[in-house]
Specification:
α1 links the parallel β1 and β2. The protein is of the alpha/beta class and about 90 residues long. It has a three-stranded parallel β-sheet, sandwiched between helices. Helix content is about 45%, strand content about 20%. The chain contains four helices and three strands; from the N terminus they run βαβαβαα. The chain has one domain: Rossmann fold (3-Layer(aba) Sandwich), CATH 3.40.50.1390. The longest helix has 18 residues.
Length: about 90
């Protein structure tokens, strides 16, 4: 029997030079990946105009809290730098 993975999507952009379309493109690509792998998306977390150089991002923190509750199996990001640009934070949260 194939186990369906429960997935949380995390999308982020950091500056005023980026736009909401950046978030839309990230989510669209992640949804296609989940569809292809038959993974179930259970939540989408979005941080707009927050840097990934630290973990002080509201949706990121909510995602970490939900992770501790076991609400999903996988956090999917379009690129790793969307998750974190800080090596310490990246290692701790992974």
């Amino acid at each position: 029997m194939i186990e369906i993975k429960r997935v949380a999507l995390y999308a982020r952009f950091s500056s005023d030079h980026q736009r909401t379309e950046s978030i839309d493109a990230q989510i669209r690509a992640m949804k296609e990946f989940c569809d292809h792998n038959k993974w179930k998306i259970v939540e989408t977390y979005i941080d707009e105009t927050y840097s990934a150089t630290n973990d002080r991002r509201p949706s990121f923190q909510r995602m970490i809290t939900d992770s501790e509750k076991g609400l999903f199996d996988i956090v999917l990001v379009h690129k790793l730098d969307r998750f974190s640009r800080n090596r310490y934070d990246s290692a701790v949260y992974k």
